[in-house]
Design brief:
This is GTP-binding protein. InterPro entries: Beta-grasp_dom_sf, DRG, G_OBG, GTP-bd, GTP-binding_2, P-loop_NTPase, Small_GTP-bd, TGS. With about 375 residues, this protein is an alpha/beta fold. About 35% of the residues lie in helices and about 25% in strands. A six-stranded mixed beta sheet has the order 2-3-1-4-10-11, sandwiched between helices. A five-stranded mixed beta sheet has the order 13-12-16-14-15. A three-stranded mixed beta sheet has the order 6-8-7, with helices on one face. Strand 7 (about 190-195), helix 6 (about 200-210) and strand 8 (about 215-220) form a beta-alpha-beta unit. The protein is globular and about 70 Å long. The termini are far apart.
């Protein structure tokens, strides 16, 4: 075991054996900050030595990018081929078939979605084991993570989520509203908005671990020690994710239902139960990808002409008229006069709206600009 792993294990053991209460919160905060710093430095070293081998630098394309994350041999390559309707990713019944990142394109409900099949993660990937360092770099740039396990190894879900967490990837969590501005003097000054449980002593202890002794701190609403440490480290990414369980055709219905119930109990959300080999529930999986990306379809209607109902503009929700203008051309926002909207966001058909109007999925939009 390396000295870094030994340090991490010692701190984790101390955290496990220290009961949390108001008297110990400052000490626990300092330990967590120290642990986060050691992990972050280890991941940074692994990333720096990655070298970006063949296939690991993938140009993003389409309306969004989805990365398939899983251990070797859970069926990621087969699933990519099924989702994209092609045989672009080699498949075989042994581990590590995929040795580089394989991009594919899926079209669904008007959206063009890039799907990336990456080499299987292994335990310790965040610290650079196996091909972990290159793989983690690709995952951090994703718009959505699809965590794939199979019916024989659903317990791998915990390990995969831990690897993502250790690599600074926060799934299904909004970025906490925390601002830390270093200062030249004056100590730590704390301002809070809303209900905040952290006190000034906990914050001082956490910041001191990162050698910050003078700073202005602003916290809005309920945040945890972990949230504050993430804000201090400053390189976390916040990505939506969901779980799919593959190879359900290889177990009976009762076993499949038990696995689904187990994962709901541990993670709160039901997984999508699929079979990449047979195609079972692949359309449901495509819908889940579309919905978890928060996509909206906006149909554009030129002034005096019919709306184009075949080719919607795909945009992430929530979206305003200004977001659409920026997607169309930078001049549209600068020269904007007004817009007309038909659909769920409008009070009536052809409602005249301003640039800040919030759109809904399926709206028809006309943008009128100054000449």
């Amino acid at each position: 075991m390396s000295s870094v792993e030994e340090q991490i294990r010692e701190i984790e053991d101390e955290l496990k054996n220290t009961p949390y209460n108001k008297a110990t919160s400052k000490h626990i905060g300092r330990l967590k900050a120290k642990l986060a710093k050691i992990r972050d430095e280890a991941v940074a070293r692994a990333m720096a030595s990655a070298g970006g081998g063949e296939g690991y630098s993938v140009k993003k394309s389409g309306d969004a990018t989805v990365v398939l994350v899983g251990f070797p041999s859970v069926g990621k390559s087969t699933l990519l081929n099924r989702l994209t309707g092609s045989d672009i990713s080699e498949t075989a019944s042994y581990a590590f078939t995929t040795v580089s990142v394989i991009p594919g394109s899926m079209e669904h409900r008007g959206a063009k979605i890039q799907i990336l099949d990456i080499p299987g993660l292994i335990a310790g990937a965040a610290m650079g084991k196996g091909r972990g360092k290159e793989v983690i770099a690709v995952v951090r740039s994703a718009d959505l993570i699809l965590v794939l396990v199979d019916v024989f190894n659903e317990q791998h879900t915990d390990v995969l989520l831990r690897e993502l967490y250790d690599a600074g990837i926060r799934i299904n969590r909004p970025k906490p509203d925390i601002t830390i501005k270093k200062a030249g003097c004056g100590g730590i000054r704390l301002n809070t908005v809303g209900a905040v449980d952290l006190d000034i002593e906990e914050i001082r202890s956490i910041l001191a671990e990162n050698k910050i002794v003078n700073a202005d701190v602003l916290i809005r609403d309920g945040v945890t020690q972990d949230d504050f440490i993430d804000a201090m480290i400053g390189n976390r990414v916040y990505v939506p994710a969901f779980i799919a369980v593959n190879k359900v055709d290889l177990v009976d219905e009762k076993t499949g239902a038990e696995i689904e119930k187990e994962l709901v109990g541990r993670f709160g959300e039901p997984p999508i139960m699929v079979s990449a080999h047979s195609g079972y529930r692949i359309e449901d999986l495509k819908d889940a990808i579309f919905e978890n990306l928060g996509f909206m379809r906006v149909y554009l209607k030129p002034v005096g002409g019919p709306a184009d109902m075949d080719e919607p503009l795909i945009i992430r929700s929530p979206a305003t008229v200004e977001d659409v203008c920026n997607r169309l051309h930078r001049d549209f926002a600068d020269k904007f006069r007004y817009a007309k909207v038909w659909g769920n966001s409008a009070k009536h058909n052809a409602q005249r709206v301003g640039i800040t109007h919030k759109l809904a999925d399926g709206d028809v939009l006309t943008v009128v600009t100054r000449r």
